[in-house]
C-alpha cells in the first residue's frame, strides 16, 4: 500500500490467511507493534523503521495477553517497551498463567509469541494538522464496544478505519489480598466519566469489576453477626399468620412434639411395652434378651423335655421337629457362609464346604437333617457318623433320606478333609448319654474339629458343668434356651412351631419373641 504522508511504498506479504474481521484487527495490531511479526516487509528504509517505532510507541500502556505455547504458557501484563530492531516486547507487572510473577518485568522475543491479544487498549495519539488546524484528542478503545475512528496518522494501523472487536476480558487470579491484578488507571476512568470520547457508553463490566468493588474484598464477612440478625421465632410467626392465636398454637405444638422419630417408632402413643412376656414355673437361672428388648428366661432340661413330649402328644412329632430344626439350622448356616453374596450362579466354582459331625442320638439326627438341606442348596457336605450296629429310628430314616443327595457320608475321621473347610456343625453331644465322650471315635472327631481352623456351629448342645469338648462360635437352642455354661459362643434360638397352649399346659405363660423370624439372637440380660 501507499503511505501518502511519507511518500514511501511498502509491499507486505501475509504469512497466514486472515479469515475474519477480528483476525484482521489482531493482525493489524500485531504488525503495528513488531512490524515484521505476522507481516514481512520485502524492503524497508530508515523512514519506514522510524514509522514502525512511532506506531509501536503508541501501544505502550496497553494490557495484552501473550500466548507462548504449551511450554512457556500464557502471560498477561501492561506493555512497557517495544523494540522493533531486536523484535522484543516487555511487560510490566506480568501474570503467568493467572499467577503474579515474582519479577517486575518480562521481555519476550517475537519468535516465541504464538498469539497476542489486546485486553485493554489505551491509545493517546496526537492527530496531525488538518486543513482547519491541529487538535489533540485522547482516544479510548475498550474491548466490548464497536467504535470507528476516522483519524489520519503516520502509522500503518490508522490509515484505514478501525473497528474494535469483541474480545474476552481475562481477569488475573489474585495472588494475595493486596494484589488486584492489572487494572485500568483511575485517570483513564475519570476521562470516561467526565465526558471524554466514549464516556456516554461506559462499559458495565468496568462498573462491576472496577477497583471500587474490590476494596471490600479484604474485609471478612461477619457470619455470626448476620446470623444474629435472623429472628427465627418472628419468621415462623409471619408464616403462621398475623393472628396471635395461630402463633401461640404453633408454639404449643412445637413444645409438645418430639424433635425426631426413629424409623421403628410410632407417632401415636400406644400402651406401655411389657418386655417380660414369658414366665416359667421353674427358672433355669439365666435370663436372655432379644434385639427388641424382650426377656427370654432359660428353663432346666427336665422342663424342656416335658415340653417336647407334650408337643408330640398333640401332634408335633419328632419327624416334624427334626424337619423344622433342619430348616432353621441350615438357613442359619447359609447366612454364616455368606448368603446371597457367596451362593450365586456366577460363583459356582467356589462352593462352600461344610462338615457335619453327628452322634447316634436325636441331636445327631438334627445334624443329618441340616446336612441334607445344605446339600440341596449346592453346598459340598461331608457327614461324619460312626458305624453302629443299632441306632435310633430317627437317625436311620434321616441317613436313608440323606443318601439321596450329593453329600458324602464317612464313618472314619481319616476320611474327613485335611484342609480347613468353611464351617463345622457339631452334633456329637447328646442329652441322655454323657458317656459317649469317653469313646475313641468321639475324641478323634473332637480333636479333628479343634485342629481345623473352621468356625463351629453347635445344634442343641446339652447342659454340662465341664467346658465343652469342641469350642463353638455359635450355639442354636430349640424352643426355650437351656442354662448353658458361660463362654464366648453366641446364642441363637430356633422356633420349632410349638403352640401357645402347649406351653401353657406345662405351666409356661408364653408370648412369641420371634417376631417375623424363625431364628433370633439372644444376649445375656
TrEMBL record:
Start and end residues of each stretch annotated as Disordered: 125-211
Annotated Polar residues bias: 125-137, 145-163, 175-188
Domain YjeF N-terminal: 300-504
Gene3D superfamilies referenced in this protein's UniProt entry, alphabetically: 2.30.30.100, YjeF N-terminal domain
Entry-linked InterPro entries: DFDF, FDF_dom, Lsm14-like_N, Lsm16_N, YjeF_N_dom, YjeF_N_dom_sf
Pfam family, one: YjeF_N
GO molecular function: mRNA binding
Domain DFDF residues, every copy: 209-245
UniProt subcellular location: Cytoplasm, P-body
GO (cellular component) term, any one: P-body
GO biological process: deadenylation-independent decapping of nuclear-transcribed mRNA; P-body assembly
Superkingdom to which the source organism belongs: Eukaryota
Keyword Cytoplasm: yes
UniProt keyword list: Cytoplasm, RNA-binding
Principal location: cytoplasm
Keyword hit for Cytoplasm: yes
Family from the record: Belongs to the EDC3 family.
Identification of the protein by name: Enhancer of mRNA-decapping protein 3
Gene: LOC106536635
Amino acid at each position: 500500500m501507499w503511505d501518502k504522508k511519507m511518500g514511501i511504498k511498502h509491499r507486505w506479504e501475509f504469512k497466514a490467511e486472515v479469515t475474519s474481521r477480528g483476525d484482521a484487527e489482531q493482525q493489524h495490531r500485531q504488525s503495528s507493534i513488531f512490524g515484521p511479526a505476522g507481516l514481512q516487509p520485502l524492503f524497508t528504509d530508515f523512514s519506514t523503521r522510524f514509522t514502525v517505532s512511532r506506531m509501536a510507541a503508541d501501544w505502550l500502556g496497553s494490557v495484552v495477553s501473550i500466548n507462548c505455547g504449551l511450554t512457556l504458557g500464557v502471560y498477561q501484563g501492561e506493555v512497557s517497551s517495544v523494540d522493533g530492531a531486536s523484535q522484543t516486547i516487555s511487560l510490566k507487572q506480568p501474570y503467568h498463567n493467572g499467577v503474579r510473577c515474582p519479577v517486575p518485568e518480562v521481555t519476550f522475543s517475537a519468535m516465541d509469541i504464538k498469539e497476542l491479544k489486546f485486553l485493554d487498549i489505551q491509545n493517546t495519539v496526537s492527530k496531525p494538522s488538518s486543513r482547519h488546524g491541529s487538535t489533540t484528542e485522547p482516544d479510548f478503545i475498550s474491548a466490548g464496544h464497536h467504535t470507528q475512528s476516522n483519524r489520519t496518522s503516520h502509522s500503518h494501523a490508522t490509515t484505514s478505519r478501525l473497528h474494535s472487536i469483541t474480545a474476552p476480558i481475562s481477569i488475573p487470579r489474585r495472588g494475595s489480598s493486596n494484589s488486584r491484578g492489572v487494572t485500568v488507571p483511575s485517570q483513564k476512568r475519570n476521562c470516561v466519566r467526565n465526558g471524554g470520547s466514549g464516556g456516554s457508553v461506559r462499559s458495565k463490566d468496568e462498573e462491576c469489576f472496577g477497583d471500587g468493588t474490590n476494596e471490600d474484598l479484604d474485609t471478612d464477612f461477619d457470619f455470626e453477626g448476620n446470623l444474629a440478625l435472623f429472628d427465627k421465632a418472628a419468621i415462623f410467626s409471619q408464616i403462621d399468620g398475623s393472628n396471635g392465636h395461630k402463633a401461640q398454637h404453633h408454639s404449643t405444638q412445637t413444645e409438645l412434639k418430639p424433635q425426631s422419630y426413629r424409623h421403628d417408632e410410632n407417632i401415636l402413643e400406644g400402651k406401655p411395652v411389657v418386655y417380660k412376656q414369658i414366665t416359667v414355673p421353674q427358672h433355669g437361672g439365666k435370663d436372655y434378651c432379644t434385639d427388641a428388648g424382650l426377656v427370654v428366661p432359660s428353663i432346666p432340661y427336665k422342663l424342656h423335655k416335658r415340653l417336647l413330649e407334650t408337643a408330640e402328644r398333640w401332634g408335633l412329632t419328632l419327624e416334624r421337629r427334626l424337619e423344622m430344626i433342619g430348616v432353621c439350622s441350615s438357613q442359619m448356616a447359609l447366612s454364616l457362609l455368606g448368603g446371597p453374596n457367596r451362593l450365586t450362579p456366577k460363583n459356582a466354582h467356589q462352593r462352600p464346604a461344610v462338615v457335619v459331625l453327628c452322634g447316634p442320638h436325636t441331636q445327631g439326627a438334627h445334624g443329618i437333617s441340616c446336612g441334607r438341606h445344605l446339600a440341596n442348596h449346592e453346598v459340598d457336605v461331608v457327614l461324619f457318623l460312626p458305624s453302629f450296629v443299632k441306632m435310633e429310628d430317627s437317625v436311620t430314616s434321616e441317613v436313608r433320606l440323606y443318601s439321596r443327595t450329593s453329600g458324602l457320608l464317612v464313618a472314619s475321621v481319616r476320611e474327613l478333609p485335611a484342609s480347613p473347610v468353611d464351617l463345622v456343625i457339631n452334633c456329637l453331644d447328646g442329652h441322655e448319654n454323657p458317656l459317649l465322650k469317653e469313646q475313641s471315635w468321639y475324641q478323634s472327631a473332637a480333636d479333628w474339629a479343634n485342629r481345623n481352623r473352621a468356625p463351629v456351629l453347635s445344634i442343641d448342645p446339652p447342659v454340662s458343668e465341664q467346658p465343652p469338648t469342641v469350642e463353638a462360635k455359635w450355639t442354636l437352642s430349640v424352643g426355650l434356651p437351656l442354662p448353658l455354661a458361660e463362654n464366648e459362643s453366641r446364642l441363637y434360638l430356633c422356633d420349632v412351631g410349638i403352640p401357645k397352649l402347649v406351653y401353657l399346659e406345662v405351666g409356661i405363660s408364653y408370648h412369641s419373641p420371634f417376631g417375623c423370624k424363625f431364628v433370633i439372637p439372644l444376649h445375656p440380660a
